[in-house]
Design a protein that fits this description.
Layout: E1 2-6, H1 9-12, H2 15-28, E2 32-35, H3 43-53, E3 58-61, E4 64-65, H4 71-85, E5 89-94, H5 98-104, H6 112-127, E6 132-135, E7 140-143, E8 154-157, H7 162-171, E9 174-178, H8 182-199, E10 206-215, H9 219-229, H10 237-246, E11 256-258, H11 260-272, E12 277-282, H12 287-298
Length: 301
Amino acid sequence: MRIGYFGGTINDGTVDDVVAEAAQAEADGFATYWAPQIFGHDALTALAVVAREVPRIELGTSVVPTYPRHPMALAQQCLTVNAVADGRLTLGIGLSHKVVIENMMGMSFDKPIRHIRDYMNVLGPLSRNEPVSYSGEAYSTHASIAANGAKPFSTVIAALGPQMLRAAAELADGTLTWCTGPITLAEHTIPTINAAADAAGRPDPRVIAALPVCVTDDSEAVKGRAAKVFEIYGSLPSYRAMLDREGAAGPEDIAITGTADEVVDRVGRLAEIGVTDYAAVEFPGNPDEAEATRAAIKQLL
């Protein structure tokens, strides 16, 4: 199982801070640096800068919402970033949430499964530097992109429900999850996506699990902090469904916390259920917890 680092500075820091964070993740030995796309800096633009300064670590987005971006425009941006990154980019995409797309952006969140399938039928060939000729309900595109020096890029889909997991297996290279605990991963996510890939004659998909982590000697205080830090996710319907599957009251119940040995053991057990990549979302409350959490995760590298 590969160990990646889920960055936070892209939302609350400068681009220089993002570069420094990714450089530290590379120096510490992490396999991947994941940049979220929320309401801070644009993830792909920032990763192009990171790619110039940080030469080895895999760079990924977690995740770019699809509705606001035409798949051809996104493919063009990714090919450009990947030319800078010399093939190190993994594009993570997702639907986002109805409240974001409709209430905040004023766009339609209609037929999300149809949307993602049409989207990938356009994005897929372009991501491989192939022309696309596709006519669908949501997107019809007949074009090609000539981005000299750009290698093909990999795509994973943030998939939670069974239809999205099947789409990820058939049309992408895997999935990237959030607010999905180990029971749900083992009993729902991994069996569903693996079965769909097998039925489609596709390679074993990548399963990237992002989960909060903190080494602490005060578990109750850390659980309370996790409940506050990640509170919003428990109210979003798609994440709420995964938490309910897990039997979790909120994201605090799936956070990986405890002593260093306990954290190392719990992260390590993700590999046993079929997780291919763990993305560490560190949330220390003080410098001691930050140092201890990073030291524990580095034991797994």
